[in-house]
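Throughout our pipeline, every protein is held as a single compact record rather than as scattered files. The record that follows is passed on verbatim for readers who wish to inspect the format.
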Amino acid sequence: MHPRNQRIAIALLSLAAHADVHATAAEDEHIRQIVQGVLKEKDQKIEQLEARIKQLEQERNNSVAVSANPTVAPAGEPAPAPVKTAANAKPEPTVDTKLKALDKKIAALKEAAEANGLQMSGFFDINAKTGNSTDQTFSVGSVELDLDYVHDDHFGASSALVLCGNSSNADYGAPGAVFCGNSGPGALSGGSTMAGIAVALVDYHSFNDRIPPRGRIFNNKGFHIQAGRFDLPFGNDYQNFANKDRITITAPLTTSRMQLGGYNADGIRSYGAWDMFNYSVFWTDALYANDGHTVGGRLGLALGQNTYKIHNANPEGIEIGVSHLSEFDGENRIRNTVYGADLSIGYGMWRLQNEFMLLNAHQQVFLEQDADGNPLPIIIPDPNTSPFGKGHQLGYHSTLTVDLESLSKQPIVAFARYSRWQPSQGLGLDFDGSTVAINDISMLSLGFNYKFSDHLRVKFEYNDSLGTETAERYFDRKLGIAQIVMSF
């Protein structure tokens, strides 16, 4: 290249480089100004946030100081009521929420016990009656605690402890149905029995390891051999000796009169259920006297229903049962024989329970007197002594229950029952040993119960003897009863 042209090219490159340096410096200055503006704006926002935080902290400190030192209103001026806001207002708990909370607590306790092989349950009842022979309106009936313990696959134990409140102020020798709130606990028959053991047994079993102390013992398939104290499956009312299991309040006359409140004794028994068949056999102490023993049993046939049903269900289908027991005195002479038949029919919301009992006495009861002239019932075979009479008795009842929940959308069960008791003799012994006139008795019972929850039920019942009566101290011709049963 010509020297002149080289000088021109070098000059042009120098000018271009100088211009580029000036452009870069200008851009850097512009960027620096933008960044400074952003940082300044950020500092302003930080200062504003710090000021707001200080303001909120001051307001909080002021509110804490006011709470710690509330202003005392001058004398004579009412203190201002606290203002309720949506934030601090809490809804008042309803009866339903309280019952649900109680159910959860009970379920938690049961789960803790079952984890160790123990099932616990129980109940108590409170009664209110119209004018009656006890001259009391309110009474605590019976309190029962049931325990069911499984030791292993084949052995277990069960017990039911019963306490009678006797707040009705009845005499201690009164029948259990009166002594325990006019409802009847079964197994306790008065006679100063404030508390008692209704069930206490050891059990050998197969198929099923649950041993219900009372109630529907045939609900589960199985085979059991037991020793101890227990209710006797006779007829069908044995399922309802505990008030929590009974739809009605009072027991039928077959139970209260002929079974003395409910057959219960010490001894041994075996029972089981397979498919449609169930059975029970027992050998126990005497039922109607203080000496001797009793043997008997029941055979049942269930048609058109699931035998293994839940405890509180109203099963459909038909169940037929026949029962028998023979009681012997201390010298093995037969004293009484009792025959029973029962029929239960369930269809939809309807359930009909029928029971028939016949007691034949084989020995006459004669009246002797003690030193004070009071009659003493003793059993002797001498026909030349003035007889008190053989205790032949016939009884039956028919009970209809209707589950109205499907119609009323409320857990209501209505019931109607007619029962009859026909003794052969015209005289009997009252609870205190006095001789009183007795007659055939009819009893019509009407009522309903309402289930608030699985643990709370309220029952109402009206009883009318339809013009029949006896001279017994605690006989009521007409009686209205309300009962609250709390189970756990």
